[in-house]
Amino acid sequence: MAFFRPSVSREAEVRYHADQEVGKSFPELLEKARAAEAELRRVQATSTSAEERRAAGRAFDAALTEALRAAEANQRATFGVKSYDDRIRRRKGRATPKGAEWTDEVNRLRTLREQNRLTGIARVPRPVAVAAR
Description:
The protein has about 130 residues and is mainly α. The protein contains 5 helices and no strands. The longest helix has 30 residues, at about 50-80. This is Plectin. Keywords: Coiled coil.
């Protein structure tokens, strides 16, 4: 008796290989995020200008976002090619030690990014336009 084993879709294979390529850049992007965080902390400690603090906060946010995208790509690639089409495979992939490790890393980066968005980006008052009468 032969069992039918459906293969993965072509789209899933393409996405899997794309995620593998994006995920390779994770260590460099994480290092850029660490450097941007150090710069933000330095600016927060020394600068009184809200514009400088805002620029450093936004640079840190951009670096964190890129690192988060690479971590998410690594996470999906770790789950395996079948996880792109099947949610059960995603759950099984998340339950493996490597899958749990990448899930924790993604959650840590998301938390750090949200914390930076709430408290790290300085608010700058908008310029008030003078209304002509």
